[in-house]
Amino acid sequence: MSKKGGKKATAGGGELSRFLQPHLQTITDTLQMMSEAAPGGLERTEWSEVVALGDVVSRQATVAGMVWSGDLPGVETLKENIAAYFNVLQGFLLACHGSTVGAGPTLHKYITSSAKGVVDASFSLFKLALSAYESGSPDRKTIIPPVTGTVWEACLALKKVPATNCIAIGRAMTQICVCLKDILREMKELPVGDSDDTKAGKSSNGDAAMSFSDKDESFSDLEEDEGFTEEEIAVAKLIIAVTADSLDAVKETIRFITSLLKSSGNQSGAAEDKVESMENLLSHCRDVADQVNELGASVYAQDPSEMKSAIKRLYVGITGMCQEIAGLGGSPKNAYAAFSGFEKSLKALEEEIGEDVVDEMKNLTISPS
């Protein structure tokens, strides 16, 4: 004899699952289409329009949350709710795609990432709602509202997405600064003794490279690690100086770009015709950060070949940054000064580990002739 009284699955559950699936697939296909920026010949959708459509998605999520967590209506009404929500979501994605007209790689990444956040939250909402419906779960009123909230948060995050290529690139450079700051902080914690006789924590011109919340930390309280020889300690201190000057170089690059935008008198569209140069500049900044991180990791191993390889790529990074900035115009005097200081730190490290890293770069010129 079969037992009765267990949880009874709600009628129409399978039918709703079949109805939802093609809507999920359509959104997935649209998101895949967004993996490439929209063709340049199309009319660009302003990001403010995307944000407005995000608010519509958020309101639809509120409605869906109320429908699926309350006293459930009939299957046809639930189908209507699904169709209405995903029609709005599709319109939102198409607007996102339209906003990528003229977008460089960095802005495109910000846009697609934010769109995916809204899609992922939406999928989670309906998959959970349908699962709770099919199983007849009595917990619908408590488990669905929090997932609805994730859709709200994803839509709210749209307001923080950069609206232009230049702002997107500047924000990405700022993140590189944060990474370099973290690397420098870790380097300053190395047990290599007092570093007041080096440039660690300062830029090449003597100014502080970055304000740290833990700036009162001192190497003088740290005893020299028994695993470090005097020569290795000298190398470690020079790597700290290189890290500090790399941070200063990226900061001055950001200041240069900001100044360039302000001097144009039209920040919303400023330098959008120079996106390729700015993207290249960002790429060089990333390479610099990566190689500085490699240098930091080599402090304990003290492998000269690894250090030389990193130094060589850092020289290439400096040269590339100079070339791109020269092509952007403006007044790059302070940026060039920071690059010169960075180059001097590299040369000092190069000499300390024994020989020139790249003889062909001995006459590297920072400022244009």
Automatic annotation (TrEMBL):
<dbReference type="Pfam" id="PF20936">
    <property type="entry name" value="GCIP_C"/>
</dbReference>
<dbReference type="GO" id="GO:0005634">
    <property type="term" value="C:nucleus"/>
</dbReference>
<feature type="domain" description="Cyclin-D1-binding protein 1-like N-terminal">
    <location>
        <begin position="49"/>
        <end position="191"/>
    </location>
</feature>
<keyword id="KW-0963">Cytoplasm</keyword>
<feature type="domain" description="Cyclin-D1-binding protein 1-like C-terminal">
    <location>
        <begin position="216"/>
        <end position="321"/>
    </location>
</feature>
<comment type="similarity">
    <text>Belongs to the CCNDBP1 family.</text>
</comment>
<dbReference type="Pfam" id="PF13324">
    <property type="entry name" value="GCIP_N"/>
</dbReference>
<protein>
    <submittedName>
        <fullName>Uncharacterized protein</fullName>
    </submittedName>
</protein>
<dbReference type="InterPro" id="IPR049317">
    <property type="entry name" value="GCIP-like_N"/>
</dbReference>
<dbReference type="InterPro" id="IPR049318">
    <property type="entry name" value="GCIP_C"/>
</dbReference>
<dbReference type="GO" id="GO:0005737">
    <property type="term" value="C:cytoplasm"/>
</dbReference>
<keyword id="KW-0131">Cell cycle</keyword>
<keyword id="KW-0539">Nucleus</keyword>
<dbReference type="InterPro" id="IPR026907">
    <property type="entry name" value="GCIP-like"/>
</dbReference>
<feature type="region of interest" description="Disordered">
    <location>
        <begin position="194"/>
        <end position="224"/>
    </location>
</feature>
